[in-house]
Amino acid sequence: MQFHCNKAGFEQGTAMVDYSRFGAIIIGDEILSGKRQDKHLPNLIEQLDKRGLELAWVRLVGDDADLLRQTLRETFAGSVPAFSFGGIGATPDDRTRQCAAEAAGVELAFHQEGLAELDAQFGAEVTPQRRRLVEFPVGAELIPNPVNRVPGFSFRQHHFVPGFPSMAWPMIEWVLDQKYARHHAPGGRVERMITLFDARESQIIPLMEDFVARYPALRMSCLPHADASRFQLELGLRGEPRLVAEALAALTKSVERLGFQWQPVEA
To answer: Along the chain (267 residues), what's the average pLDDT of each consecutive run of 10 residues?
Structure first.
């Protein structure tokens, strides 16, 4: 697949890659069965947010090879980079490396730098089973593992890391800071919210439609709440700080014209 450089970043085939947003693939039957709770998603959101980046989508996938291949075919063709958690070990239920290669139509091959990392860590204890840990799709690049030197890999704007948080999280930070540093925009996105009192969603749909049309670069959200005494709506605006400030000032005036009381939501 060809990558073409342009002002916004790269074109992956015909799809423009959006480097301000990322996807996440969380893999494992144990997550879907409830045996383990996912911890990666909150951490990834936090790491992205402090760099002025954001999460675009997340997929939870079991260890089923057909479904994993289908998922990777779809996400390889997408417009955002993605992180994949889990399934890159050497046991029979670890299928991510194989499925990534098959989804892309390339072969698996031992990564020579990866083998050197294994030799440095394990020496004579590098068994054939351990060698499988660095059998990656042809064209993959290494992601260093600061815990045990068994690397993950980057391939087609996807970054594959282990399921262990102690390894995965510093590896994600390395990827974000080494591969995407020029796209960081700390403070580049903010979210501001207000609470409307005695308001129902149906009463403000025209207002929201107007703001979505006026400020297409912003994300607008509406979260209803109800207690024993009154209905409340939490309206949020997320995006570039200057534009959020402008839109929020206009929003509060529109809310007041409709006769609703409001107050800011403290961060």
So the answer is: 34 65 95 93 95 94 95 96 96 94 97 95 89 96 96 97 96 97 84 92 94 93 80 91 94 95 88
Contact 83, 179 (CB under 8 A): no
- Taking the whole predicted model, whether its pTM rises above 0.90 is answered as no
The residue among 161, 251, 174, 262 whose CA lies nearest residue 208 is 251
Contact between 130 and 90 under an 8 Å Cβ cutoff? The reply is yes
Distance CA 187, CA 175 (A): 20
Cα separation, 266 vs 3, whole angstroms: 43
Give the distance from CA 203 to its chain's centroid. 34
Check if the beta carbon of residue 231 is closer than 8 Å to that of residue 198.
yes
Q: Using CA atoms, how far apart are residues 159 and 143, in angstroms rounded to an integer? A: 8
DSSP 183-243: G--TTS-EEEEEEEES--HHHHHHHHHHHHHH-TTSEEEEEEEE-SS-EEEEEEEEE-HHH
C-alpha 75/C-alpha 73 separation (Å) is 6
Sign of the torsion angle spanned by Cα atoms 77, 40, 178, 6: positive
> Quick check: 57 and 71 in contact, CB under 8 A?
no
